[in-house]
Every structure is written in structure tokens, then in C-alpha cells.
């Protein structure tokens, strides 16, 4: 079927093409017992990824002193936002049952965004592979030795490259530069200037494009493929990036245990994650399902001006359809979500796992940011604020309300709802001040 025909015949796709806010409930979602039969990633792989991060903790602690308090483990707080919960109910005339929390990956050490999970992990794995192959490192070593000059000299003979709208570039650039790699970050037109400036201050080469994220990735991949000593971090296809993100679920479970929170059928977990190409939210969602199974419900949130994942999932075309095919060009204030085509790897993994998606208009990003700042004295970047659309719309929208009534029922009153903040700690004060005074519509 031609894309034009899909748009004409599919009412949801028609609304997406008109840049209208939509709610999409995934009718392909299956029970976890059915889903796990065909999982391409094993518990052993996730455990191996966690073990690798533990091995690298001494290096991270030494290279990034801000992680001393967590002994080199890169993790973010889980904070209750009950004041905001009440204000959202009042302001948007909605009901948000249970307890609302903010998972502050916006404040992760090293890169100040969720990309510090996957990006840092992939660079560390690559460094470990190279050093072990060269006979310079053993898995039994104290990895703090990686800060020594001989390792920096060794890694300086290799390149790491990535295409990014900003946050992934920061995590890859900062980590790679700390190890000694030559780093090239290919950045799309919508990347913030302060992110480019920060990377350059770390000795990273930044190549700018007048085009979107897809072009930056395409050129970065081509540039890297031409150099046998270059390694490309591929946000669209990387299993290692994905594995780094899955670890978030193990860490969240530990935080729940510390707070005495139990997730079960009577106390379900509902998670809302802003989505761009899909790697970070997909990895987190996948990890959560592995641990909490049918007791967790994950929704992605995208801007109406860059709804690539919901378009791929709703049509079943995954990465074979772009928002440009339906007349949308990804020019959004949610710069970290400004992606035209979803990851094929992730969209297919989400096909029978994800609960659904919400899209929102750009002006709400700033409204939610002001609400968070006024009620909880917390600041995150506008892209991250997309997550708040989930709890606001969950029982307000007929389709999502029916889904919750059918799947969760009265247990929604005992739920734990988490908005996943994906970035913001490193935003310069002058930029954040502008965000807090930006009014659209």
C-alpha cells in the first residue's frame, strides 16, 4: 500500500499528518509470557552489561570526581513530585491516581541526560575490547589504571564518531575524550549551541549540518566506515547502546527496594518516557518488562511535530516510514526528540511490548516546565517535560482510560506513576531562564 493511501485510509495517521495531539493504544501488546519466547536479548547479556559497568566504576570515579559519592556508579534520583501531581490535576482538570514520581536521568553524572546510560556504556565497552585485545588490560584489573597516560596514548590512535541532536553527542564526546580517543560528533541543525560549545571545550571535533538528525547520522556513519580505526556509535541500530539503557530497570528496582515500594498486580507501575529515535526509551522499557513483567505499563511521549515512533508503530512500517512522508519536518522545541525516522531495532522490539503513545503540542513543554519549577523547585530541559503529558492524559482521554480500566481496573488507585526526565542538568542558567519565560500559542 502506498504511503499516500495509508494516510487517507488510516484516521490516526491522518491526525498525525495534521499535527494534532493523539493517543495511540497498542493493540498488538501481548502478555510477557508470550513476549519473552522471542526475545533477542537475554538476561545474561543484561547481567554482563551491569558487570562491565561495575568493573569500570573505579575509572569513572577517578575520571569524573562528581561520581565519588556513588563510587563510580552512574545513577539518578527517584523523587516524589506530589505537589506537582496535585497542581496538574487542578490545572488540567484531570485525575492522576496513585503516587507520581520523577526519575531524574536529567541529572545523571558525566553527561546530564539519559544518554549517559547507553552512550557511556558503549564507549566503555569499546575501550575495554581494544585494551584487552592489545594485552594491556585484564578483567581482573583495577580499571582506574585506564586514567594512566599510556592508555590515553593508546586510545588516541583510535577514533569514535556519532551522529546526534545533542545529548548522545555529549555522552559519547565527554566519555571518549576522557579516555583519550579522537572524537568526532556529527550534529544536526537543531542541536543547541551550548552543547556544541561544551564538546569543543573537551577537545571534541564537532561537524555541523544544515539538515536534520538523519543526515548527521548518515554522514557520521559514512565518515567512520571509511576509516578502519574509527568506531561509529549508531543510535539507530546499536545493541550495545540499547543494553546500556536496559540497566536503568535494575537500578530502579533497587531504588524501589530501598523505599519499600513493591510492584505487583495490586500495585502496578506506569512509566512515561519522551521518545526520539527510540534507543533510550526502548532500552528502559525493555529492561522494565524483564523485571516487572505484566505489572508495568510503558508509554512513549512524542511532540506532534516529530512523531516518528508512533507513526512507525501505528502503520506497522517501523523505520520504513518517515514523518516527512506525511508532511511533517521535525521542527520542534523538543530538540532532543527531533527525529524523522524511528530505530528499526527498537520499533520492532516495542511492537508487542509498548502500552501506547501520547503526542503533545510544543507549548505544553514550557507550561509543564514552569509547573515543575514552581511546585517542586526542579528544572529539566523542555524535551524531558513531554513525559508529563502521560499522567495528565491517561484518564482524561477516552482510549487510554478504557485501556487502563480493562488492564488495571481499580488497582490504578494504588499505582506508582513515573515520568522519566531525560535531560537538563547541564543546560546553562541563561538558557534555562529563557525556557522558564517562553510562552507559545
TrEMBL record:
GO terms under biological process: D-serine catabolic process; isoleucine biosynthetic process
Keyword Lyase: yes
Catalytic activity: D-serine = pyruvate + NH4(+)
Cofactor(s) demanded: pyridoxal 5'-phosphate
Tryptophan synthase beta chain-like PALP domain sequence ranges: 71-400
Assigned EC number: 4.3.1.18
Family: Belongs to the serine/threonine dehydratase family. DsdA subfamily.
Protein name: Probable D-serine dehydratase
Native species: Fusobacterium mortiferum
Amino acid at each position: 500500500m502506498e504511503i499516500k493511501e495509508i494516510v487517507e485510509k488510516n484516521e490516526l495517521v491522518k491526525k498525525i499528518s495534521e499535527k494534532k495531539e493523539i493517543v495511540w493504544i497498542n493493540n498488538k501488546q501481548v502478555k510477557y509470557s508470550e513476549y519473552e519466547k522471542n526475545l533477542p536479548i537475554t538476561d545474561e547479556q543484561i547481567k554482563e552489561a551491569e558487570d562491565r559497568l561495575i568493573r569500570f566504576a573505579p575509572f569513572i570515579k577517578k575520571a569524573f570526581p562528581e561520581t565519588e559519592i556513588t563510587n563510580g556508579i552512574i545513577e539518578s534520583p527517584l523523587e516524589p513530585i506530589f505537589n506537582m501531581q496535585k497542581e496538574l490535576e487542578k490545572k488540567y482538570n484531570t485525575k492522576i491516581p496513585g503516587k507520581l514520581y520523577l526519575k531524574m536521568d536529567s541529572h545523571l553524572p558525566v553527561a546530564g541526560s539519559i544518554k549517559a546510560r547507553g552512550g557511556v556504556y558503549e564507549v566503555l565497552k569499546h575501550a575495554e575490547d581494544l585494551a584487552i585485545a592489545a594485552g594491556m588490560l585484564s578483567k581482573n584489573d583495577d580499571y582506574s589504571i585506564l586514567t594512566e597516560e599510556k592508555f590515553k596514548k593508546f586510545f588516541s590512535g583510535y577514533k569514535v564518531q556519532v551522529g546526534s541532536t545533542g545529548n548522545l553527542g555529549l555522552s559519547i564526546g565527554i566519555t571518549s575524550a576522557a579516555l583519550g580517543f579522537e572524537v568526532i560528533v556529527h550534529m544536526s541543525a537543531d542541536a543547541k549551541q551550548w552543547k556544541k560549545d561544551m564538546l569543543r571545550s573537551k577537545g571534541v571535533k564537532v561537524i555541523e549540518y544544515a539538515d536534520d538528525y538523519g543526515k548527521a547520522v548518515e554522514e557520521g556513519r559514512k565518515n567512520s566506515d571509511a576509516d578502519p580505526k574509527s568506531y561509529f556509535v549508531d543510535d539507530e541500530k546499536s545493541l550495545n547502546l540499547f543494553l546500556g539503557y536496559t540497566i536503568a530497570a535494575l537500578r530502579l528496582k533497587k531504588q524501589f527496594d530501598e523505599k519499600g515500594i513493591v510492584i505487583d498486580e495490586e500495585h502496578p507501575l506506569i512509566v512515561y518516557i519522551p521518545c526520539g529515535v527510540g534507543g533510550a526509551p526502548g532500552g528502559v522499557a525493555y529492561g522494565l518488562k524483564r523485571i516487572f513483567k505484566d505489572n508495568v505499563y510503558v508509554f512513549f511521549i512524542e511532540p506532534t511535530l516529530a512523531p516518528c515512533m508512533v507513526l512507525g508503530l501505528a502503520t506497522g512500517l517501523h523505520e520504513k516510514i518517515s514523518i516527512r512522508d506525511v508532511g511533517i519536518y521535525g521542527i520542534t522545541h523538543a530538540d532532543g526528540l527531533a527525529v524523522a525516522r524511528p530505530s528499526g531495532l527498537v520499533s520492532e522490539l516495542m511492537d508487542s511490548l509498548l502500552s501506547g503513545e501520547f503526542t503533545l503540542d510544543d507549548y505544553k513543554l514550557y507550561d509543564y516546565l514552569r509547573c515543575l519549577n514552581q511546585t517542586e523547585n526542579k528544572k529539566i530541559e523542555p524535551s524531558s517535560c513531554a513525559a508529563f503529558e502521560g499522567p495528565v492524559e491517561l484518564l482524561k482521554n477516552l482510549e487510554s482510560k478504557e485501556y487502563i480500566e480493562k488492564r488495571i481496573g481499580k488497582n490504578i488507585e494504588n499505582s506508582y506513576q513515573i515520568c522519566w526526565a531525560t535531560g537538563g542538568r547541564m543546560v546553562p542558567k541563561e538558557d534555562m531562564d529563557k525556557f522558564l519565560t517562553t510562552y507559545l500559542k
